[in-house]
Design brief:
7 helices; alpha/beta; 9 strands; Rossmann fold; globular; binds S-adenosylmethionine
């Protein structure tokens, strides 16, 4: 089951109960202007200045409040909000001394041995080029495994982009709640998820969607109460 929501994720997270999601796996803006960087994929990616600054502390407070476990890509940009932890995940991009970084870092809530994922950036392009900072599915599979998530758990991504986290979760039979505030990337995410669930292995009765729009209290109510999400994500009251 999945729920894709358009709007500001801070407002959305405020509507969730403490510890109501099994995990947050996310990739927030790093504040490095990636949307305007021509090296990052197609020049046709639309530019909305989403990467001019990192999210405010309240976003991280809400992630910590609603999540049992957490993976945050680009954790090195958010150290002022993240406590020291042993269990970092490193993405080795298999490139050296190129104009983009040789690796990326993921902060996790876990205190266990850190791990390295080897995945050449060139291979990621085979998954399509939907977002300038699109994450390969292999990285999200690693997060899912590292956090010890199981089928039926629920993952939140409050900075969904093109929904790479969502697609990896759905392929692992993990429920997904995504929030994206940019309407163009929201539509890209929606199409990408809809196409992914059409694959035979994902065509299960459980893979039903319930889409909410933060600016519509009616559809938000349906997200909360129609019973399609597990009880831990249900029953949240929405503050206005
Ligand atoms: C680094 S990108 C995520 C890319 C994603 N990992 C992927 O594979 O496509 C971060 C995304 O967060 C969105 N975003 C930024 N601030 C947001 C907010 N307050 N609420 C919801 N989405 C937000 C941006 O529009 C951008 O698409």
């Amino acid at each position: 089951m999945y729920s894709l929501n358009i709007g500001d994720s801070l407002e959305f997270m405020k509507s969730l109960k403490d510890g109501s999601v099994s995990a947050t796996i996310t990739d927030p803006p790093y504040g490095i202007g990636a949307d305007a960087n021509p090296i990052r994929g197609k020049s046709t990616h639309h530019k909305t200045n989403w990467d001019v600054a990192i999210p405010k502390s309240e976003y991280f407070s809400e992630i910590f409040r609603v999540s049992k476990k957490i993976c945050i890509w680009g954790g090195n940009y958010f150290t002022e909000y993240l406590p020291p932890r042993m269990g970092w995940i490193v993405w080795d991009k298999g490139q050296r001394e190129f104009s983009l970084a040789d690796f990326e870092l993921c902060w996790t809530s876990e205190n266990k041995a850190g791990r390295i994922v080897n995945h050449p950036r060139s291979k990621s392009l085979a998954e399509g080029n939907f977002h300038p900072t699109q994450k390969p599915l292999k990285l999200i599979y690693k997060c899912i495994q590292f956090l010890g998530l199981k089928e039926g758990d629920t993952v939140l991504d409050p900075f969904m982009g093109s929904a790479s986290t969502g697609i990896a979760c759905l392929k692992m039979n993990i429920n997904f709640i995504g929030v994206e505030r940019d309407p163009i990337y929201f539509e890209i995410a929606k199409k990408r998820v809809e196409q992914a669930v059409l694959q035979p292995s994902l065509l299960t009765p459980a893979n039903t969607a319930c889409s909410g729009r933060l600016d519509s209290s009616a559809s938000q109510r349906s997200f909360i109460t129609d019973g399609e999400l597990p009880s831990k994500a249900r029953g949240a009251t929405r503050r206005r």
